[in-house]
Amino acid sequence: MIERLRGRAGHAQRLRRLKRTKGLCERCGAKGVVALATVVDHIQPLALGGSDEDRNTRNLCDPCHDQVTAEKFGFTTPAKVGTDKDGWPIG
């Protein structure tokens, strides 16, 4: 297993991984949607024994990351929060 990088080296690694998809979300791209990737996600989570290697990562936008993380750990997808037409909270 490769040791996870921290600090400047970890930041440089994250930027390199994001450049792999030109900073775009891979899941959205598969659906023909263009969205900015904000998270380098581990396909097999580190907490579940995954490695911190490039081949175990993918670039995702926040909504996609929230969804896949919830699925991986057995939770439902987080509800969307917002307001209705009268300004009352929904979600």
Task: Write structural notes for this entry.
- The protein is an alpha+beta fold and 91 residues long.
- 32% of the residues lie in helices and 13% in strands.
- It contains three helices and four strands, in the order ααββαββ.
- It has a two-stranded antiparallel sheet with strand order 1-2. The protein has a two-stranded antiparallel sheet with strand order 3-4.
- The longest helix has 13 residues, at 7-19.
- The protein is globular and about 50 Å long.
- The mean pLDDT is 88.
**Form type:** globular
Helical fraction equals 25-40%
Instruction: Specify Rg, calculated over alpha carbons.
Output: 16 Å
Order of helices and strands: HHEEHEE
Number of strands: 4
Percent of residues in beta strands? 5-15%
Major sheet summary line: 2 strands, antiparallel
Which stretches of 5+ consecutive residues score pLDDT under 50? none
- What is the strand arrangement across the widest sheet? 1-2
Question: What is the first-to-last residue Cα distance?
Answer: 41 Å
- Round the mean pLDDT to the nearest integer and report it: 88
Helix count equals: 3
Q: Quickly give the structural class.
A: alpha+beta
